[in-house]
Amino acid sequence: MTNKPVTNKPVIELQVQAIVIDIEGTVSSIQFVHEVMFPFASQAAEQFLQERWEDAEVQQAIDQMAKDWAGKTSFSAPLDDGNWRWNSEVPATGRPMAVAQWVRQLIADDSKTTGLKHLQGMIWKDGFHAGLLTAPLFPDVPPALQRWSDQGLQLAVYSSGSIAAQKLFFQHTNSGNLLSLFSSHFDTTTGGKRASSSYRAIAERMGRDACQLLFLSDVYEELTAAKEAGWQAIAVVRPGNAPLPQNCSIPAIQSFDELVVSATR
């Protein structure tokens, strides 16, 4: 028997083997990401880079930022185009400050590039571990995740935030550490979230048929890409989210309590 949540709203019933969730606008508010996490990374970037400049992982993230930036002209990077060498006008002592300014500009531009996400994840890690950040989940999310896990459904995350940031997020929620509920994590290193090829790659890595996978997100283009790859998809409508298109044919819910999922045999 399916353990149905108590709700007065109509429910959508599905049979799947795994559920893959987005984070921003799906399990937590867009406001938390844009008004708390992004400003924290902007404000903490300079001190973080001053203290961790010699770390190989930090330099790797900066190198990736340069590769992500190549060919773009929307802002000025502190590196020469081509071989990711430092601009001769930036002295060694000023490089952490220059990169911090670059990070702030990328964040202001709402960049989704892999290098920035990697560096942000390291900054957020310090914030979560210091107790300066706690991820606020919508109240319907923790019991639903636990319910689905108890039913034997495989749970995974696909977010534009780095895998490291995803794990930190679910380790430090307002409902405690929920990381153990998830078996897999995917980010933009798998591919763009609006590309159907990314969802095909995730299905292959999870060892599941696409039709047995369900994607939950607030972004219409992501849900459409998942459906093009053969997935099932449900739109999640939360306060502050961008409205779905008027002609949206994808089923929508306002709470995970409106979704009843059972595991296929």
Topology:
Blueprint: E1 12-16, E2 18-21, H1 30-52, H2 56-69, H3 95-108, H4 114-129, H5 141-150, E3 154-158, H6 163-171, E4 184-186, H7 196-206, E5 213-217, H8 220-228, E6 232-236, E7 252-253, E8 259-263
Parallel strand pairs: 1-8, 2-3, 2-5, 3-4, 5-6, 6-7
- Biggest sheet, spatial arrangement of strands: 4-3-2-5-6-7
Largest sheet: 6 strands, parallel
Structurally, the number of domains stands at 2
Provide the low-confidence segments as ranges. none
Q: Judging by the overall fold, what is the CATH architecture of the largest domain? A: 3-Layer(aba) Sandwich
Number of strands: 8
CATH topology of the largest domain: Rossmann fold
Proportion in β-strands: 5-15%
SSE succession: EEHHHHHEHEHEHEEE
Q: How many alpha or pi helices? A: 8
> What is the share of helical residues?
40-55%
The CATH H-level superfamily of the largest domain is: HAD superfamily/HAD-like
Name the CATH class of the largest domain. Answer: Alpha Beta
Mean pLDDT: 90
- 3D shape: elongated
Tell me what you see in this structure.
With 265 residues, this protein is α/β, with parallel strands linked by helices. The protein has two domains: 12-28 and 135-263, HAD superfamily/HAD-like (Rossmann fold); 33-129, Transcription Termination Factor Rho, Rna-binding Domain, Chain A, Domain 1 (Orthogonal Bundle), CATH 1.10.720. Helix content is 40%, strand content 13%. The protein contains eight helices and eight strands, in the order ββαααααβαβαβαβββ. The chain has helices spanning 30-52, 56-69, 95-108, 114-129, 141-150, 163-171, 196-206, 220-228; strands spanning 12-16, 18-21, 154-158, 184-186, 213-217, 232-236, 252-253, 259-263. It has a six-stranded parallel beta sheet, with helices on both faces. A two-stranded parallel sheet has the order 1-8. β5, α8 and β6 (232-236) form a beta-alpha-beta unit. α1 runs antiparallel to α3 and α2 runs antiparallel to α4 (114-129). The longest helix has 23 residues, at 30-52. It starts with 11 loop residues before the first strand and ends with a strand. The relative contact order is 0.20.
